[in-house]
Amino acid sequence: MGIRIERTELPGIGTRHDVITSRGRRIGVLAFRTGERQIAFYDEGDPDACTDSIVMSDNEATALADLLGTSLILGELTALGETETGLYTEQLILPAGSPLAGATLGDTKARSKTGTSIVAIVHDGAVVPSPAPDSPLGAGDTIIAVGTRPGLEALSDILAHGTD
After folding, report:
1. Over 80: is that where the pLDDT of 116 sits?
2. Which of 13, 20, 129, 137 is most exposed, with the fewest beta carbons within 10 Å of its own?
3. Which domains does the chain have, with CATH numbers?
């Protein structure tokens, strides 16, 4: 499915990228030369009339981009499990008493021990997509993993009891 994105240079101001949804709605992302970013919502009848906008800090824009990207990837991975590939996507919580609370993702040895892939971590309220081995783990973090049913069960056990 093609996605329609229009890019408009705003001389002396920055760039406007508009996403036109399948229903014809227009949502704009304005990137100003100053570094400021805004999300703009346009009138259905007049694509040049902005009905509302939200100014976003760099951290807010990054968090929103990560959240949208992660949810899109997770949706696609979940659909894989539904097509009988034998892969499942699961959200696991790192228990408070886990020996891995305070450790890093690499310390779990999840991929080598279980064959699962950890595709995201929700840590301290922020989504960490495609986490690196040195990504920290904390009690209560949500681990989003993809794997076979036995692999995910083994990962759940590792998260609860450690690697020993």
Report:
1. yes
2. 13
3. 4-56 (no CATH), 80-161 (3.30.70.1450)
